[in-house]
Design goal:
2 helices, 0% strand, mainly alpha, 45 residues, single chain
């Protein structure tokens, strides 16, 4: 699971960098997105 989340994190960062997102905002936005994904995965179980 951790490997998947790390890959997702990398992909999210790449996508955010293509969306005129300020460089300093990318880590925080990535963290929020990953938290949402984790919550969705927990809800599925």
């Amino acid at each position: 699971m951790t490997k998947i989340l790390n890959l997702l994190k990398q992909r999210i960062e790449v996508h955010l960098s293509g969306f005129n997102v300020r460089e300093k905002d990318i880590p925080e936005l990535t963290k929020l997105i990953l938290e949402e994904i984790e919550d969705l995965l927990k809800d599925k179980k």
